[in-house]
Each structure stands twice: as C-alpha cells, then as structure tokens.
Amino acid sequence: MKRSFSRRQKLTIVNGILSIxxxxxxxxxxxxxxxxxxxxxxxxxxxxxxxxxxxxxLFLNAGLLWYIYQMERR
Amino acid sequence: xxxxxxxQLSVPPNGRPYHEQPQWRNDxxxxxxxxxxxxxRDFTKFLVLTSFAFVVGQAWIVLENLRRRRRGxxxxxxxxxxxxxxxGSALTFAYPAAHDDCILVRTGEERFVAYGQKCxxxxxxxxxxPKDNCLYCPCHNGVFDLETGVPTAGPxxxxxxxIQLEIRDGAIYATGVEVxx
Lengths: 74, 181
Fold this sequence. Notes:
Radius of gyration of chain B: 30 Å
Structural class of chain B: alpha+beta
Distance between the termini of chain B: 70 Å
Order of helices and strands of chain A: HH
Radius of gyration of chain A: 17 Å
Largest sheet of chain B: 4 strands, antiparallel
Number of strands of chain A: 0
Oligomer: heterodimer
Number of strands of chain B: 10
Number of helices of chain B: 2
Shape of chain A: elongated
Distance between the termini of chain A: 11 Å
Helix content of chain B: 10-25%
Number of helices of chain A: 2
Strand order of the largest sheet of chain B: 5-6-7-8
Strand content of chain A: under 5%
Shape of chain B: elongated
Structural class of chain A: mainly alpha
C-alpha cells in the first residue's frame, strides 16, 4: 500500500528532489563542456561514454520528477 | 465536514480534497504552502527540461563526430608555388573545405608551417607575426607559437589545428589536418 504524505512532508520531499536534480544538472553541464572540449581537441574516446552518462542523468531526473507527480496524486 | 488533511490551510470551494480538484486548481492554488509546492515542482520540471537539452547537446556532439569520421582523409591540394611565397611572408588558403580558412607561413628557405586560421578560443581569425615568431588573435589578445601552434598567451587553451604539408616539384601541398587537444 502506498503511503500518503502530509503537505508539509510533500514539500520537504520536493525540496530534497529539487536539490538532487539541480546537482545532477550541474554535473551534466560539466559533462557537456568537457565533452565539447574533447571533441574540439580531436579526442574521440570520451564522447560516447559521456553521452550515455548524460542520458542516464536525464532518466534519473525524469524518474524523480515522475515520483513528484505520483506523490501529488495520492 | 470534509476529509481535508490537518495541514491543509484552505479548502477548495467545492470542499473536495485537492487530488479530486481540476488540474487548473492544482496549478493555481489559493493558499501559500500549496503554491510553494507547485512552484518547486515546476522548477524541478524546468531543470529536467534543461537536463534534456544537455542530452541533446551530447547527442549532437556524437553525431558531429560521426560526420567528421565519415568525411575520411582530406584530399591532397596544392597551395602555391614556392617561388610565390617570400621568406617571412604568409598566405591564406582554404583547406580541406572551402570555408575552412588556413594560414601558411614561410619561416625559412625550406621551412613552412600552416595552421587553421580560427582561434581555438572563439574562432576569430589569427594573423601571423613572423618577426615575433607568433600568430596573434586580435579579439582577445591570444598568442600562439609560430613553430608549434601551441597557445602561449591569452585565453586560448588548445593548439591550432596543424595542416600537414608536403613540398614537391617546386610547389607546396596540403595533405592533411592534425587536430590537437
């Protein structure tokens, strides 16, 4: 059975998720600049792993957002 | 009496709980804590969209790299006859594509160097200064060593792409591009 949270608890959870998502987005920004630097420098080996890592970050972020919407429906 | 939670500061006009309200009432709530919750949620949504944009950027880099690979080796192309380039002078040419501006500098009797002309900082055109043994970018005072193309001053961090050269039959040819990190 899924637990229903009070609104105060929901706000705390949303704040926590927002902090995590913000950190992941900063990580993605760093990944993008590092990848662009490698690409312009002719270094090819990091491009695909960095792209995959960024996609994983996106899925994580999307999952956390989905959790917020699910939590609000309860 | 409604089934409103104790921390619900206000009750929607029809008295029903929030999850049974129409979407517009959830998105534009009438009390402050609910508004705060929605604002944080929407900011999270905005960050997720930013995250998506970063992934699109990464994908674009990977595709551009594939396109660069598919182009293969650049063609061998004649730049000029040796007699037309005095020692200490420079010549601009396009290589490998028509919009890839490059610069050739004759530094000695049999010594030539050639680089892509776009500064590795923000793509301004670099100009040769053979007397100072450097290439200079006027936009942000970037300086590159003439012999190696390595940045020696200013904001650029990457060396200029080096154009590989070959001298044959009294002419100089471009044979490849060496992109360096």
